[in-house]
Amino acid sequence: MQVSHTNDVKVYNLSGGKSLPQWLTHKEQRERVKNDTELEHKVELISDFELHEVATKVKLTPDGQYLYAYGIYPPLIKCYDLKQMTLKFDRGADGDVLNFVSLSEDYGKVVLLFDDRYLEIHSQNGKYYRMRVPSIGRDLSYNWKNCDLYVVGSSQDIYRLNMEQGRFLASFTSTHSSSFNASVVNPYHQLLAVGSQEGSVECWDPRVRKCVGCIKATSLLDSEDSSVAGVSKLKFHESMTLSVGTTTGQVMLFDIRATKPTLIKDHNYGFPILAMDFSSNFDTDYVISSDKKGVKTWNRHSGKLLTAIEPDHDINDFCLYPQSGLIFVAKETKQIGSYFIPELGPAPRWCSFLENITEELEEDYETVIYDDYRFVTREQLNALGLAGLIGSKVLRAYMHGFFIDASLYNEAKAASEPFAYETFKQKKIEQDIKKERHDRVISKVQLPDVNREVAIRLNNQKMFGRRKAKADADAVLSDDRFDSLFKNPDMEMNIDDEDLEYINPSVLWKMSRLQPELAQIAEQMAEDEQEMGQFSDEERHNSDSELSSDDSGEFRRVRKKIKKKERNQQQTIASYYGFDKAKTGHDESTSENYPEKNTPLPEVFVANSENDNFIISSRLSEESTALKKESLMERLAKEDKFSRQAGVVASEQSAVVDTSGKNEPKLAKRKSRKSK
Questions:
Q1: Is the pTM higher than 0.90?
Q2: What is the pLDDT of residues 122-147, one digit of tens each?
Q3: CB-facing half-sphere around the CA of 650: CA atoms within 13 A
Q4: CA-angle at 43, arms to 39 and 48, nearest 5°
Q5: Partners of 211 in the beta sheet?
Q6: 8 Å CB contact between 232 and 182
Q7: Which of 163, 455, 508, 530 is 20 to 30 Å apart from 274, CA to CA?
Q8: Inter-residue contact 202 to 196 (CB < 8 Å)
Q9: Which of 190, 199, 193 is nearest to 221 (CA)?
Q10: Cα distance between residue 139 and residue 59, in whole Å
Q11: Consecutive H or E run containing 102
Q12: What does the pLDDT read at residue 182?
């Protein structure tokens, strides 16, 4: 049991701690409780005390024996028998229920107010009748004396439905307010109080059917929000005290005979007050009020805070069991919270055992739901190698996956990914390298790292598409909500994926068409990086020394890829201009007449057109760029030697090509001159 101490007041969380899965049998649950001390110390006050997803309303019946709880996703209302501490029945609803009220002492009759302007009357057998309200309702209350049901909402009329006659009576029309948010009936003198959106409180006497009093409650606030504050909740205490909750987080206590509040309590959160109640036991006289952040208990006369309940999830409603310290809280989670505060009062008679066990079962630990199990999908099971366990007792099917024991999952995860930490470390290093590279090199082409095909397609659509297509593409590219589409690697769309081809073949076809354009842009980005990344040897040495060994290795690999790409481009240029290799029957043993082999260009070329000058100029440019550290005289000497060799080669090739025999004397003269 989880216990908290606020202002030295103990608050016991009866719903905290572990929860057993519902699919376990009673025998398995007993065995699990025996082997787990935390489960052994857990107190399950009411069996199955939860809804599907979110609990929004909790209310007690007038006799205090039954508890109604309503939740959404799907809309469902449950009734619990508190004496038996179990579920009585549950019913599905046709829409979202804003509020409901009991028409009888027990669970037999209840009226539900829906957000679609409908009222539903339910009996113990189920739905009895459904009718429509003239305007959208926001709250309802019931007068036990004359059987009138009051509905307030988005109009200035207060609708009256007489349950005895079964028809609508003449409504009360307000002249001070345009709409109402809350209503309440005093059980002592049947005075009807309604709170408006403008912040005024009106009191109507059903006997004369007139407004007997009106006061602008929020105008009495000292805060700056007094002009915009409205009334969100009303609650009577005994016959003369009225508490008013505002939409800005204040609680005002009024004596209905006075025009000024006796006390103003601020929650200091700025959220609307959702529920209020009074606790008067023996010498205690406290007010309990709630907004979505917490439930606060404070003294009705001095306003001093006694304690507070601040759960992990937002609060929607709460209900105090009369003459006790037990509080039920509906939160933004499927489990309904149960809290016991001994300072407010004793435990109810139907759970009097709380008085004896609260002190014995005090322990502090975090609230974890199903922390012994983990939810996995079928794909995750295949990755872990546990697909063979499907259908066994180890896996429990749930929605689109399975529940698996947490210890078994951790062992399988460690066995399937032994190098997970090294992979994570390498990934972080690559991210740091990419960040450093981005700071140093600014590319002309800006593309994301993820889903580049999608980015190209959207950019083309933005520039050349129609008006609606341009607007859609601009919305995707500029909206921050789609950032993960181009940043998260898990959202990468693989064109080789069979599922993508099956689901959306048109998108796959468009992405495949963009592959040449993507390759061209990637090449341009590499050239820009090579251009902008040229810095001195000293700067390179300093930058490499600052990075790790893995970082330097990454840079070496990148430079090696760039050099390889340059060689491929040079060979492509040579083949494009008609130069071919090994067509002249050249023997490598006589390579002294030709350029060196370690240069990027091929050793021997055959001129199919008048491009000899291109050979010489290309060779000179390659030699000059490869020998940056040589002196000027050495480079000139080498270029002169290379020019003479290229001239000899060109003349020999022209002689070979000439079949007419006109150039034979010239060739003989050159050979004799060379021999001399």
A1: no
A2: 998 899 999 999 999 999 999 999 99
A3: 14
A4: 95
A5: 204
A6: yes
A7: 163
A8: yes
A9: 199
A10: 14
A11: strand 97-102
A12: 96
